[in-house]
Amino acid sequence: MRWVRTLMMQLTVVAVLAGLGNTVTLADDLKGQAAGPKKPLAKNVILMISDGCGYNHVDAASLFEHGKTGVQVYESFPFRAGMSTYSYSKGTLGRLTLGEYDPSKAWSDPQYVTRGYTDSAAASTTMSTGHKTYGGAIGMDTNREPLLHAWEKAERAGKMTGVVSSVQWSHATPAAFVAHNESRSNYAAIACEMLSENPTDVIMGCGHPWFDANGQSKTKPNKFDFVGGQETWNALADGRTGGDADGDGKADRWTLVQTREEFQSLMTGPTPQRVCGVAQVSKTLQQGRAGDAEAVPFQVPLIETVPTLAEMTRAAINVLDDDPDGFCLMIEAGAVDWAGHDNQTGRTIEEQIDFNRAVEAVVQWVDQNSSWDDTLLIVTADHETGYLTAPVPTGQPSPDASVRLTNNGKGVSPGLKWNSGSHTNCLVPVYAKGTAARLLTKLADQQDPKRGAYVDNAEIGKVLHAVISGAE
Ligand SMILES: [Zn+2]
To answer: What is the pTM assigned to this prediction?
Structure first.
């Protein structure tokens, strides 16, 4: 959103001219701070979500990649804690009841975490708004009333915003940062809202109607739901889609990018104002490709015609970083969850590694183009998927998620066991870097016997809103 920026720049010029020749005292300065608009605690906020990633998913990828754990870039961030993720769900008599995470039960009853888990829609809505809600809710509260997204607040403050995913861009996680719908399943309506009613500036993901899971073009299209229906898709391709994003009363059209080369060309140099990137694959970048899903990671050749999550990330940031007011970006590795549901060890490791490269790309961008005073980076998950643990020895019937996976050395999948095909209510890790991460440190006041200090996912939402509005 650029009009606010222009206005603010003009106001700044006026303020500087008015201040010429005056001596500003500390008292004036404090008075000015109390009276004037609050300065955001960070100019840029980047939230990265590995969907379905628990502690053992991080370790599985690290053991395969490095033969050791604790080596991912985010694992040395100054803020490291656990995060509870429970949501509202239908209890007895069909009444919505708020779940819980009880640390003592979580480690004394191995089945405890297999109940009362969240879905991605509720978890992401909570991280985006600070409010717990019901499973399937996209930016809606338990009364089915729309909630204010942190990214909407950022748009009002003149920032640019975006969402990036390695699955369909209208899927639960990206949708839950910008859209409002009673149900995550209403893909076409969600996609239309994202393209036509929302002021967001970057949308990237999969869900291409004319390509299959292997990135091959089709003569008969897939359903157009993920891109908002056939008419919306045609209008998007023709550059006719997009509402007034910047408040000047004129429509701001989306520029559609599709090929890997188009994504890569956005990584540097000048960019269009609003970019919708739809990779040329049906549902997800690589996890859905043909070939033995149980093979050693990367043994089945990757689809070369789709970008990596890191390439999408670089492209998205390069579009958004033109705004001097800053930007807010959510990046999701959506298929870690899908591989987890199918208990695919190799693909889980591939997807988590793709996520790790994207985090490294963000860290590199901050180091080279911004600063940790200006940018807050939070790396986390929405929930754990698969109840991934170390192999359970004979005679020990119950999994224990705190036992370390068996290290089989670099380039070999570690010894592990999938104990579920669903989500769990286990704590997930959260890592943060940036001066504004001090807000998270204040909130990490709950203790888990195995994972240590932890926050709740609603507190992530509260931090995002506080950082954007400048309130502590
Ligand atoms: Zn899932």
So the answer is: 0.92
